[in-house]
Amino acid sequence: MNEHLLDIRNLKTWYRTYQGYAQVVDGVNLTIDAGKKIGIVGESGCGKTTTMKSVLRVLDERKAYLPEGEILFKNQNILKMRETELQQIRRKNISMISQEPSAALNPVFTVGQQIFDVISYSKQDDTAKNKKELTDIAIKAIRDVFIPDPERILECYPHQLSGGMKQRICIAMALVTPRELLIADEPGTALDVTIQDQIHRLLRALVDEKQTALIMITHSLGVVRELVDQIYVMYAGNIVEVATTNELFKNPLHPYTRGLMDCVPRLSGGGISAGIYGYVPDYVHPTPGCRFSPRCPYVKEICRVQKPLMLEVSEGHTVACFRYTDSFTEQHRQEESIGERA
Ligand SMILES: Nc1ncnc2c1ncn2[C@@H]1O[C@H](COP(=O)(O)OP(=O)(O)O)[C@@H](O)[C@H]1O
Ligand SMILES: [Mg+2]
């Protein structure tokens, strides 16, 4: 019996492109339990959104292909579900906040109409609500995200709201009906940093209050540090390191995680970080072996030919890197001793 709320096993997602299949998600494993908070962190373009859109099956499946893997939500494989079952999941169990609030809101309907639709959609087979009940629920949802004068906001169209307000409305819509899992895809990235920080705090307070599990997606380790209990580091469609937030910050192992760590601004100063040299690779012709090898300062021959498996280095801390395998340490030691003799 599987006790995880969501259990992603060896998920692969490919896009059909004119150049061939782009193998964007490459064997992702991830679990989250009820009420927990995890972060998925990686540079832009490393496949975070694609992974989560696969979970909700909202990719256009004529263009996206999911050749392998299982996505178990409460033991039910989402990849095997029929459309009606999928709708049920989207209606009652999982909601997602998208990266771009303007794109998520429909410009031709008022905010009120859009919130009412979400409530009615989730209640479709329960008792339908009358206008008064819908309005009361919507007003409470808008108050929860600290927008003043909710009665007026219900009558507004999205273009009459600021970016921060739109993002709050998206959060209100995602949480207006009870959900077990909320996927927040870089909420607030399109906003300035002070508003972004408020949005993150608000999100955290709301998921705590409603005991919703949270998957927070971001490109910045600094952002998730205060928000989640466990972090998955993703690079080019692979999960390369998993640890609790404290452990990851204390003891980052993967060279990519360390590179990301260097990008977190420090209060003590130190100037602009060097960042990580190079780019996320081409997914149509992915690098054989470790996908990070072309950018890795510690690369060895084996890294270019063989894919490193996830290795548990201490309890709850796993990393996919040959540096932490015995054979690599042995090879490295031999090379060093040859170097010393020369
Ligand atoms: N519909 C699509 N068709 C082809 N390639 C896509 C599509 N959507 C995303 N990609 C590619 O997949 C890769 C990962 O994108 P994405 O999942 O959006 O990454 P992230 O969310 O980490 O920034 C990128 O190289 C992107 O160009
Ligand atoms: Mg994204």
TrEMBL record:
GO terms for molecular function: ATP binding; ATP hydrolysis activity. One of its GO terms (biological process) is peptide transport. Its main location: membrane. Keywords: ATP-binding, Cell inner membrane, Cell membrane, Membrane, Nucleotide-binding, Translocase, Transport. One of its GO terms (cellular component) is plasma membrane. The keyword Nucleotide-binding applies. It is found in: Cell inner membrane. It comes from the Bacteria. SMART domains: AAA (SM00382). The keyword Membrane applies. Residues 8-261 form the ABC transporter domain. It is a peripheral membrane protein. Belongs to the ABC transporter superfamily. This is Oligopeptide transporter subunit ATP-binding component of ABC superfamily. It comes from uncultured spirochete. The gene is oppD.
